Amino acid sequence: MTLVMGVDSSTQSCKVVITDAATGAVVRQGRASHPDGTSVDPEAWWTALQEAIADAGGLDDVEAWAVGGQQHGMVALDADGRVIRDALLWNDTRSAQAAADLTAEFGADELARRTGLVPVASFTITKLRWLRDHEPENAARVAAVALPHDWLTWRLRGFGPEGESSRGPVLDELVTDRSDASGTGYWNPATGGYDRELLAAALGHDAVLPRVLGPQEWVTDAADRRVGGGAGDNAGAALGLGASPGDVVVSIGTSGTVFAVSEERTIDPTGAVAGFADCTGRFLPLVATLNAARVLDAIGRVLGVDHAELSRLALAAGPGAAGLTLVPYFEGERTPNLPDATASLSGMTLASTTRENLARAAVEGMLSGLAAGLEALRGLGVPLERALLVGGGAQSQAVREIAPLVLGLPVEVPEPGEYVALGAARQAASVLAV
Predict the structure, then answer these.
(1) Does the annotation mark 233 as catalytic?
(2) Out of 8, 86, 233, 278, which one is annotated catalytic?
């Protein structure tokens, strides 16, 4: 049996799966936690990766591997390969003004054309501008910029600061893939190259950036194993799920994501749809919402019930909840862009205001927010034929039954699994076969 390893280095934890390269079956797996916060020392990820690999039985019998991970995080390295400051993660919002400044300087239409993105605080380009504006001495020291999965791949291949690695601080050995590069804000999906003008506008100067590997390209680690380019988390999940053109993945976690596999690049100057690439040579247009499973948490607390009972109540009510409508913007919203909005409940009558209808309105309202993401994708001509429902919220029976009515698509709910890590393992198997 030929074994390969896939890694998911997410915000919360590091998951490792070791699978049979031929069948994809999981042979063993491991996990380690990450610290909380929106600004994290990357060394914590490196420690967790090593712990998770050990928990999975080690690498000795593995022949290829790849790393998937959270997108956008800024890992700034000096000329000696040392991390300059804690990495700002995707959910760190301190660079919101930097995003607005970059948009004002270049224009939303121009940025969308050049990068597929209109800057928001999530993206790496805005974090680099923040660093330039608020920590100019640190910005001046930056010799290379990597993302979390790029940096972990580099370290696991044996590179890093002198005295802490077997192969030394060779910055030119940093590698990435199309999907993660497409979330930086300074990579052009049309040309497949970096936009150095935008990088310099953000950081204040040029820097080494990871080489973007193609879907079947590979490098080696210190033990001469093949190493794939890896993937951003959503692209890794799409690969792990086996999503293909016509599929849209609807992920219901604390926040929600709606992303589709597309043969064509999308450009959305409104910024609602991020024009990401995937890790197979296609594209992965994505919409993010702030309010997803926690909508159900909030209404469950109001009703004093757990998720199973909330589901039962919702299914006891009819479609439309007798006119009771919940607009679920409890924490503002990103899609549509209403950062200061609040939630509202309308259509309340003596007849409609029941526990059952409130539970139903919560499920329908949450799904309606995600359906708005589907409409944004449809508006750009992305073909949508089937929805794959994943995430913690997808385990609700009410969500599974009501989703086809609200989303307007056939819905499938894959078995729960570590799909980002499985996608990375699938990529590792593919480069082993080249």
Answers:
(1) yes
(2) 233
